[in-house]
Amino acid sequence: MNELTGLKPAELWRYFEEICQVPRPSKQEEKIIAYLLDFASRNGLEARRDEAGNVLISKPAAKGREGAPAVVLQAHMDMVCESNGPHDFTREPIRPYIDGGWVKALGGTTLGADDGIGVAACMAILTSTTIRHGPLECLFTVDEETGLTGALALQPDFFRGRLLLNLDSEDEGELFIGCAGGIDTVIQMACQRVPTRPGSYAARVEVKGLLGGHSGDDINKGRGNAIKMLNRFLWNLNDTYGIQVAHFEGGKLRNAIPREAHAVIVFAGQYKERVMADFNLYAAEMKRVWGITEPDFSLSLETAEMPATACDEPSTARLLNSLYACPHGVVAMSYRMPGLVETSTNLAAVRFENERQVLITTSQRSDLYSEKMYIANMVESVFRLADAIVEHGDGYPGWTPNPASALLQVVAASYERLFGKPPVVRSIHAGLECGLFLEKYPDMDMVSFGPTLRDVHSPGERVDV
Question: Phi and psi for 9 in degrees, rounded to 5?
Fold first, then answer.
């Protein structure tokens, strides 16, 4: 611990380093909830927890500021758990360290600055004796990363403030006044397995080392999708030689671009040398295609232990054709806010739930409800052609920008006064909890901001000091 000693403001970084020691995967937030409630108790602050696990810590106004309107500071307490190697996020701490002007995580894990840095900022303000604030409420929500269930379960009377500062954005100098809505589309595809034939050859094909990243904020940055890259090669093999897929796994989280994927395939042994030659050509071509945006990725093909069974030819064809046809990436750019992605979709994860069923997870985002459903239905139509079972989640609403927001004017003026330049005001192509807050509190005025974070939802995650 104390790797961040010397960074300013000292209290913020001290609390962030403490938070890094507390396990807090999405849907497993009991330890961070207990930490926050203990923090409130030790500092004589009023705290409450709702049934979903959301925590509200309140602090009275500073002397002379009792008549000011209550302000809600909001951050989510869970984190995305991605790693390049073994790491038990339910028990092991995150180990932050300073690398130049950035804070990163040792051991090839996500840092959890999304949104641990927002939680730490709230805690630093709650314990400050110098800030002259009005009535203050700090809202810490659960499960933002895998379903927004904390915000969904929030009751309309949980807090009283109607001015909310969301501390979950990732670009310093930018104020966000809108966000995309989203929906998950999950597919179950049957696989008829048959015994592998004598004289067959089994190979393990793997893609790894991609940057990955946030499926909203990074979707327009030209990053590769490991599932797509792997499937493209397998589809070509199947079209040329005929193969059987015994196993396919890639990606982990619906809101992360897949960084790694691997498959075990079986084909007639007579094609082994030709497949090896095709693989070398494909790997070289992918290096040429992705060498600029994905400098560290690798492709490998090696002999695998022969599986007892594999998907039959029709099942293999359905899987590979569907993954090939499934859209991924930016679908449309915004005409209302130039430079902003309006609609996108992420082919997020593929895995065999059991030997006879493949589970495929995708997520769609858009500023517009109709376009969110358009791309979700496009994904559904692809997998319907393969006779798969397709289910859409409940989704979450977007947050429509309000450039006339009174709170925005105050925050923008404060930023310019502090830093000598006006902030950029924009919307974000990612899901913030603000849209759900607006459903529960229709009169809420909100602005979102935060420090610069890069490569969130991946082991390269870092925060600009």
Answer: -75, 135
